[in-house]
Amino acid sequence: MFDSPVCPVEVNPGLEKTNSCPIQTKNNPNPGSEDTHLPDKDERRNKRKKSNRESARRSRIKKQKHLEEVRSQLNQLKTENRDLLNRLRYFMHNCQHAKMESDRLRLEHKVLLDKLLNLRQALVLSPAELNMCMR
């Protein structure tokens, strides 16, 4: 009928027995529950905040632990890498030394082979030919 904030009970006190004010019912179904509702809401919010803080703390601890594990692994890998580089240098040095020794032995082999061929030829030559070669 009218858009008035006035409750029908205020206009007609006889309605009070059968029907309460709809405006009051919508805004506050239990007048005493508003006081208890806020502490429950605050309590839930505080529990949620506490839970979130605890979760964040656990997350920070987990992250810190992971960081320490990664740093430890990094140090271990650096040590392993340094050891592998030292071994590589050692083997490269030995390889170079072996190559030089191999080259020296090949040259010595060639020299000795040439001497052997000369000696074989000398044995095949007659004594007269040998005298001519010696002069």
TrEMBL record:
<feature type="region of interest" description="Disordered">
    <location>
        <begin position="1"/>
        <end position="69"/>
    </location>
</feature>
<keyword id="KW-0539">Nucleus</keyword>
<dbReference type="GO" id="GO:0045893">
    <property type="term" value="P:positive regulation of DNA-templated transcription"/>
</dbReference>
<keyword id="KW-0238">DNA-binding</keyword>
<dbReference type="InterPro" id="IPR045314">
    <property type="entry name" value="bZIP_plant_GBF1"/>
</dbReference>
<feature type="compositionally biased region" description="Polar residues">
    <location>
        <begin position="17"/>
        <end position="33"/>
    </location>
</feature>
<feature type="domain" description="BZIP">
    <location>
        <begin position="42"/>
        <end position="105"/>
    </location>
</feature>
<dbReference type="InterPro" id="IPR046347">
    <property type="entry name" value="bZIP_sf"/>
</dbReference>
<dbReference type="Pfam" id="PF00170">
    <property type="entry name" value="bZIP_1"/>
</dbReference>
<dbReference type="GO" id="GO:0003700">
    <property type="term" value="F:DNA-binding transcription factor activity"/>
</dbReference>
<feature type="compositionally biased region" description="Basic and acidic residues">
    <location>
        <begin position="34"/>
        <end position="45"/>
    </location>
</feature>
<dbReference type="GO" id="GO:0046982">
    <property type="term" value="F:protein heterodimerization activity"/>
</dbReference>
<protein>
    <recommendedName>
        <fullName>BZIP domain-containing protein</fullName>
    </recommendedName>
</protein>
<dbReference type="GO" id="GO:0000976">
    <property type="term" value="F:transcription cis-regulatory region binding"/>
</dbReference>
<keyword id="KW-0805">Transcription regulation</keyword>
<dbReference type="InterPro" id="IPR004827">
    <property type="entry name" value="bZIP"/>
</dbReference>
<dbReference type="GO" id="GO:0005634">
    <property type="term" value="C:nucleus"/>
</dbReference>
<keyword id="KW-0804">Transcription</keyword>
